[in-house]
Amino acid sequence: xxxxxxxxRLPEDLxxxxxxxxxxxxxxxxxxxxxxxxxxxGARAEAERYFFARGSRTTPAxxxxxxxxxxDPDEVRGGDSLxxxxxxxxxxxxxxxxx
Length: 99
Fold this sequence. Notes:
This protein is mainly α and 99 residues long. It has a domain at 12-71. The protein is 53% helix and 0% strand. The protein has helices spanning 12-25, 29-55, 60-70. Helix 1 (12-25) crosses helix 2 (29-55). It is flat.
């Protein structure tokens, strides 16, 4: 396996955080970045494999028929809304589609 050199520009705070995490793990920054890239590439490959396998189990027509039965994505159904006491903090990720 050959190695390639790349020049990487990171925001200073991200670089500092990565440097701290690499040091805490007792590994070089090079290994830390290589491991992070490998994990991301592997995760994407696994997601592609998963969704290809799932997609091969149906047809576009069946998928469209299912989606048409689910209703309007902008329509709030009973039980779908949050009570005032149940609202999520601003820093919490929101479930559902991101538009």
